[in-house]
Amino acid sequence: MASHDKTELQDFTDSLEALIAAGAEHHGDGESITALHRALARLDAFVTEATAAFEASEEWAADGAKTAAAWVATRCRVPRATARRNVRLGRALRQLPSCAEAWREGRIGRDQARAIAGARRHRTASSMARDESMLVSYAAEMGFEDFYRALSYWKQLADPEGSDDAEEARRVARDAFLEPSISGMWLGQMTLDPISGSIVSAELKRLEQEFFEADCAEAAERLGRRPRTDELARTSAQRRADALVEMATRSRAAAPDGVRPAPLFSVLVGYETVHGRICELENGTVLAPSALDPWMDSAYFERAIFRLGNRVDVSVRARLFTGGTRRAIELRDRMCTHPYCYEPAEDCQGDHIDPYAAGGLTTQENGRLLCGFHNRLRNQSERKRPPPAGSSAA
Q: Does the residue 269 lie in any domain?
């Protein structure tokens, strides 16, 4: 290491010591948090690239280490898997100059850099060379979940065959076990593909909510007032466990030839022309089109036509319990529209942009999805808002 490099590193260490000595409580404001995260991303990028240079130098071999990752894991006391990932990422950045630069500048972070590096495979290398700058701009401008969805669609277009193979690998990887322990308690674990997991999760969540409402009613009657969460008879974990037992009980009681619930596939006509490719679950998980094949014979289908101005015309079905207008808003927004929220559409409320009480119409154009929290927050803010100038209190 050159002497000037040591001086720069010492200067950085001294500055860091001064920052820490100033007290974290003095940097707990939003502006400081943003600056700190950007500085952290820049340092993380620098350390990753330095680690890649360390691997290339082979200095680690002089200590008898088999690999640079093994040396880093031992000397820096990090998990071996973490060390290997860091070395691989630093190595990959040599093929991704735009990504490396954006990370170095703090415009993206490690998670975005790892995602882009992971998308570069032998079959996508030429497409990545062409589209790297575009993907980096997505990573720098979008929330991480939105960026990851966009990247997933890019991988489908860049390598359709690989996407189908990856989807099949996810489906094949499903498993579950439930075994009694020596104490008689049952221990289990499950791994489900995206569609199967959504089916199980939705029913488990529905039953848990049913049990939650029953617990609230029982506690209110017992206490004579609205109960706190810690006063309910069961915890949320216990309600989920009871919901799983209830699912098995109802399954045993159901007639073998009974009507089975079926998934609903919404075909968005014209969406790709205006907004881009979409094939995903309601919770935002991106699927390869081949993932839908096993469900085609049992699923319901509805047609949604996107028109100019973000309007959606939905074919009406009795299955749509909230009506065509609500369904159109769900398909358009797909989650809570508050910028700091990712609550899925099924857990959101329809909100009038121009309040209904003020004459707002119940139309798609005047509707949006808000989760219960942000809908209440919006209403509370409006109640606190001062009346227009010249008005008098009632």
A: yes
User: In 3-state terms, what secondary structure has residue 314?
Assistant: strand
Tokens of 241: 């466990």
Lowest mean pLDDT among 1-5, 59-63, 308-312: 1-5
The phi and psi torsions of 250 (rounded to 5 degrees) equal -70, -35
* Residues, the chain: 394
Question: Total structural domains in the chain?
Answer: 4
All residues at 6 or more sequence positions from 355 whose CB lies less than 8 Å from its CB, including other chains? 382
Q: Are residues 73 and 139 in the same domain?
A: yes
Distance from C-alpha of 52 to C-alpha of 46, rounded to nearest angstrom:
10
Give the Cα separation of 265 and 253 in Å (integer): 28
Write out the H or E segment, with its range, that includes residue 191: strand 186-191
- If asked whether residues 318 and 339 sit together in one domain, one would say no
Residue ranges making up the domain that contains 268: 261-333
Report the C-alpha gap between 268 and 53 in whole angstroms: 48
Give 34-74 pLDDT, tens digit per residue. 999 999 999 999 999 999 999 999 999 999 999 999 999 99
> What Å distances lie between residue 25 and 172, 241, 286, CA to CA?
49, 41, 40
Least reliable range by pLDDT among 34-38, 176-180, 286-290: 286-290
Residues 188, 204 within the same domain: yes
Which residue blocks in the chain are alpha helix, DSSP H? 3-22, 30-57, 68-75, 80-93, 97-104, 110-119, 125-141, 144-158, 160-172, 194-223, 236-253, 271-275, 323-333, 372-384
Token reading at 257: 């030839």
Query: Residue 337: which of 373, 364, 377, 368 has the closest Cα?
Result: 368
Q: How many CB atoms lie within 10 A of CB 64?
A: 8
If asked whether residues 233 and 274 sit together in one domain, one would say: no
* Phi-psi sector, 101: left (phi>0), alpha (psi -120 to 50), beta: alpha
